[in-house]
Design goal:
By secondary structure, this protein is α/β, with parallel strands linked by helices. Helices cover 31% and strands 16% of the residues. The protein contains 10 helices and 12 strands. The strands form 4 sheets. The protein has a 4-stranded mixed sheet, covered by helices on one side.
Length: 306
């Protein structure tokens, strides 16, 4: 049996993009008889709050989604530390005090649009006492090799992540385990075999695969899907801060929101009301719109931009 997971960051309310990603992940799992986990990614001490995790679960339940198990990521610290221990034992951890400004001065952007880290601290050793005694951010040295990778949608994710993005931070200055290492450790511990997520995360996939290989962990199958975008000052950005689920719930029913998202994703010919369970009847990835969609929130309705 496949094991899938939906892993939203709990840094605020669910928004239409969260709900679409959750819906597609849920439909994929339920129509293939897979086990489906909800993992609330709440490791960021500056942006995550316990109330955000509770609200996320409430919003997803209101929308009509259910899970076979749910876990808050901050409770998984033991397996995160075990992953750091394993990287240290292989000689792959090193401290790095480079600021974002210093990295930006090198002036090379990676596939994710951020400035590439040029691996300038690779030669620095850990202090006596190992990573636990280090008060600087920690990075993992990745092999300088290309990772051939194509996801189920045909998206080419092949990269040499050490060169194109740079060695990833795996523990932050504030002590929080960083996203790339936490997600790799948690997926493996939960036995995740299949990951369905938005295309915005696609550029990080090769880095995660490199960490999986460094830790001797299996690589799940990946599928990346369309994003909902909004216009901001003439530019397109992820539909995120403009409308949260609290605003949606104040004026729209769950079936109306589901109907609009199914229409935006190409699963229905119109935004007529529906439910996640009703969409299971004829769900197929071949019917899902491959292009990102621009969405507007009018204050009372969601609309597709022409």
């Amino acid at each position: 049996m496949d094991v899938c997971r939906f892993a939203p960051s709990t840094t605020g309310r669910a928004h239409p993009g969260t709900l679409l990603a959750a819906l597609l992940c849920w439909l994929d799992a339920r129509t293939r008889g897979a086990r489906l986990l909800l993992r609330l990614e709440d490791l960021d001490p500056q942006r995550s709050r316990p109330a955000f995790g509770e609200e996320m679960q409430e919003d997803l339940a209101w929308f009509g989604l259910d899970w076979d198990a749910a876990v808050a990521q901050h409770t998984l610290r033991t397996q995160h530390e075990a992953a750091l221990d394993a990287l240290e034992a292989k000689g792959l951890l090193y401290p790095c005090g480079c600021s974002r400004a210093r990295i930006a001065r090198h002036g090379v952007r990676g596939p994710d649009g951020r400035f590439r880290y040029p691996n300038v601290c690779r030669g620095r050793p850990l202090p006596p006492g190992g990573w636990r005694a280090c008060n600087e951010p920690l990075r993992a040295r990745l092999p300088d090799e290309r990772i051939p990778l194509v996801d189920e949608s045909g998206l080419d994710l092949s990269q040499t992540p050490a060169a194109e993005l740079g060695d990833p931070v795996v523990r932050r200055r504030d002590g929080a385990v960083a996203y790339h290492l936490a997600v790799v450790a948690d997926d493996a511990a939960a036995g995740v075999t299949r990951i369905v997520r938005g295309r915005d995360i696609a550029p990080s996939t090769a880095t995660q695969v490199a960490l999986q290989r460094a830790l001797g962990l299996p690589t799940p199958r990946y599928r990346h899907h369309l994003l909902l975008l909004e216009e901001r000052g003439g530019k397109l950005a992820k539909l995120h801060g403009s409308v949260g689920a609290d605003a949606l719930r104040a004026v729209l029913g769950a079936e109306a929101v589901c109907g609009f998202l199914a229409f935006a994703a190409g699963l229905r010919p119109s935004p007529a009301t529906t439910t996640p369970h009703a969409l299971c009847a004829d769900f197929a990835w071949e019917r899902v719109e491959p292009r990102d969609r621009v969405v507007r929130w009018t204050g009372t309705a969601l609309e597709l931009a022409p």
